[in-house]
């Protein structure tokens, strides 16, 4: 008995610790700002925080079907880099960029959804996301090439700017991808570049004509690298080597990939939600959750008495675990997601109700309360399992086929159902096992009664 009580006490301690983490890591509740592990505020979607959403259609008609997923992933990474590198979006936290595979809900189109919390100027957002970035590969100017000269209005002769590099005709449209790799001989970081068929031929011609010279790589007019050409490079692949460290190689790789859009995109819809409307939606969602919890708690305690108290305790642990998951995952909470979480509150006590009703049946047929609890947990398991599995399957289907709004609901509903199943059986059973019922007298009959009736113990002769 004492071992069971120690286990139950440890569960309570862990639950309190989780609840404390949820409280202290939320600046709006605790009033404190933390760094490191405790810097885990809830991530709110646009409908709760306000901001701009852009939805783009991706043209994958020229991409092999087996490569669509990879190319869409590259597209997402390019857009994420644009957001991070843009000065207009400085201070934008938790921007969300996600791809949606073609299915019946979006007209069988590959789509890209971008959410920018706090940004309410749609035109500004579109200008940054859809901007054309220039990636150029230039060669050294011929020293014998004439210098441009102009005569100004004042009669003075003006020498044109002497640029070290000139256009070679090779740009980012020929680039398939760039990867950070390691030299198999030296083990040093390198950057590998892969060209498409046209780019492969053009690059071979350029390198053949510029052996011993440098080729400058320009991104939006600024040189990001100027590697030497040691020999003619054929085969559609090139390797940039040098005194790179891993970080520098990755940065160059990202800049090269940033300079091209692997998939053409077209803006199909925009939406804007003001911060005030988002705050109202957040308050409404929180209020609904609190009211739902209190209503369930009152019903369980008034109808099931002591088992109801334990069920409410389990429900509080369930809520703490779910909120911690929302922070640590992290989950972007939307109004639909909060709705899924609130619905899961009712499902969270469903297993306890089935157990309690089975316990009542066992006691009514002459069993003791302890026997009723044991039988209730064992015999109700099949019903609890089947009902929860059906909910999990439904949530999975919704997540796999639904839009972003439906996915948010489905994810919180799925996680809520899964966590509630674990808490209802593993935690609830530990708490009941730590209770000493003694001779199961009138007090025990009252505490384990339900509704307007006490538990009746039939003493067998």
UniProtKB/TrEMBL annotation:
The keyword Cell membrane applies. Pfam families: Sec_GG (PF07549), SecD_1st (PF21760), SecD_SecF_C (PF02355), SecDF_P1_head (PF22599). Residues 265-420 form the Protein export membrane protein SecD/SecF C-terminal domain. NCBIfam families: 2A0604s01, secD. Residues 169-263 form the SecDF P1 head subdomain domain. The keyword Calcium does not apply. Keywords: Cell membrane, Membrane, Protein transport, Translocation, Transmembrane, Transmembrane helix, Transport. Part of the Sec protein translocase complex. Interacts with the SecYEG preprotein conducting channel. SecDF uses the proton motive force (PMF) to complete protein translocation after the ATP-dependent function of SecA. GO terms for biological process: intracellular protein transmembrane transport; protein targeting; protein transport by the Sec complex. Its main location: membrane. It is found in: Cell membrane. GO terms for molecular function: protein-transporting ATPase activity. Residues 76-139 form the Protein translocase subunit SecDF P1 domain. GO terms for cellular component: plasma membrane. The chain crosses the membrane at residues 284-304, 311-329, 335-356, 389-406, 412-432. This is Protein translocase subunit SecD. Belongs to the SecD/SecF family. SecD subfamily. InterPro entries: SecD, SecD/SecF_arch_bac, SecD/SecF_CS, SecD_1st, SecD_SecF_C, SecD_SecF_C_bact, SecDF_P1_head. It is a multi-pass membrane protein. Forms a complex with SecF. Part of the essential Sec protein translocation apparatus which comprises SecA, SecYEG and auxiliary proteins SecDF. Other proteins may also be involved.
